[in-house]
């Protein structure tokens, strides 16, 4: 079995000598004697059979070989520091990873802003974001497969914090036959055209996003795919307002209006499936998401209270 010739302590001392500009300065910072640092570096060089430092005047300088090895040593000591921090976090109950279920319609930029604020306080917690639709979200909640869930109406028996009232627009390409009609008197004319819908991600899907009276339907996985199809002049689709506002402004898509049903709305909520077992990292991220969403509410319709 191979035994290392050097120790982490020797590499940390070498790093300190370089970072603080000499043995005396490093000794003061590390609260060690200068002679002990000299001995540690000299022994390290002897064990490796290579010169790492050369002293000029009162300052120590890295050799070319020393620069290469010092750079690699920093990765090593940083990894050990992170490992020790992780052990401390686990001892305190800090979660090493969190899984978030995001209903596909929830604005990813708002969630990303929240995660960016969480990052400096995360202690290395890994984040997985799972995009879900309708029953797929609720199944993950019921099966306790996620730590946080942003969903529409949550499953029965789960408490949810309302986030926003999200608006959908009915859109199509400007050259689509429906774009020439103006305001539709009812939904019968829609039923004669191809509709694009978003697939439920549940194991046993029972729903798809959108009005479903059209006999012709294409089902896709997300709204980005739907927008690509719409850009080809094919079909119509209900799409969250924030995903199509730019295309509507530039004329790439047009908004259709049906008398008595020009928009659709859904309430999005934040659910903690295992509230009794919620850890400190999850609690922190939950509070940041709520705070970030409140700050970003101008992007969406303001908070509305709902009874669940």
UniProtKB/TrEMBL annotation:
Residues 7-63 form the HTH lysR-type domain. SUPFAM superfamilies: Periplasmic binding protein-like II, Winged helix' DNA-binding domain. InterPro entries: LysR_HTH_N, LysR_subst-bd, WH-like_DNA-bd_sf, WH_DNA-bd_sf. It holds the Pfam family LysR_substrate. Keywords: DNA-binding, Transcription, Transcription regulation. Coiled coil: none annotated. The keyword Iron does not apply. PROSITE patterns: HTH_LYSR (PS50931). The keyword Transcription regulation applies. Belongs to the LysR transcriptional regulatory family. PANTHER family: HTH-TYPE TRANSCRIPTIONAL REGULATOR, TRANSCRIPTIONAL REGULATOR-RELATED. This is LysR family transcriptional regulator.
């Amino acid at each position: 079995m191979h035994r290392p010739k050097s120790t982490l302590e020797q590499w940390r001392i070498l790093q300190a000598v370089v970072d603080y500009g000499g043995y005396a300065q490093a000794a003061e910072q590390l609260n060690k004697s200068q002679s002990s640092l000299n001995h540690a570096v000299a022994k390290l060089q002897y064990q490796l059979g290579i010169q790492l430092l050369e002293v000029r005047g009162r300052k120590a300088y890295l050799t070319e070989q020393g620069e290469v090895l010092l750079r690699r040593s920093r990765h090593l000591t940083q990894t050990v520091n992170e490992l020790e921090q992780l052990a401390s976090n686990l001892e305190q109950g800090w979660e090493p990873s969190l899984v978030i279920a995001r209903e596909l319609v929830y604005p990813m930029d708002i969630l990303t802003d929240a995660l960016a604020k969480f990052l400096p306080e995360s202690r290395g917690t890994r984040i997985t974001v799972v995009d879900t639709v309708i029953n797929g979200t609720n199944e993950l909640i019921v099966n306790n497969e996620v730590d946080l869930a942003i969903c529409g109406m949550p499953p029965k028996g789960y408490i949810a914090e309302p986030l926003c009232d999200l608006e959908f627009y009915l859109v199509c390409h400007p050259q689509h036959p429906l774009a020439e009609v103006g305001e539709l008197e009812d939904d019968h004319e829609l039923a004669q055209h191809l509709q694009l819908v978003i697939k439920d991600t549940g194991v046993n899907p029972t729903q798809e996003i959108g009005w479903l009276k059209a006999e012709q339907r294409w089902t896709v996985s997300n709204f980005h795919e739907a927008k690509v199809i719409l850009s080809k002049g094919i079909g119509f689709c209900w799409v969250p307002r924030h995903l199509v506002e730019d295309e509507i402004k530039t004329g790439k898509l047009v908004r259709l209006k049906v008398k008595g049903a020009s928009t659709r709305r859904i309430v999005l909520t934040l659910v903690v499936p295992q509230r009794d077992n919620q850890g400190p990292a999850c609690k922190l991220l939950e509070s940041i998401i709520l705070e970030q969403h409140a700050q970003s509410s101008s992007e969406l319709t303001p908070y509305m209270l709902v009874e669940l």
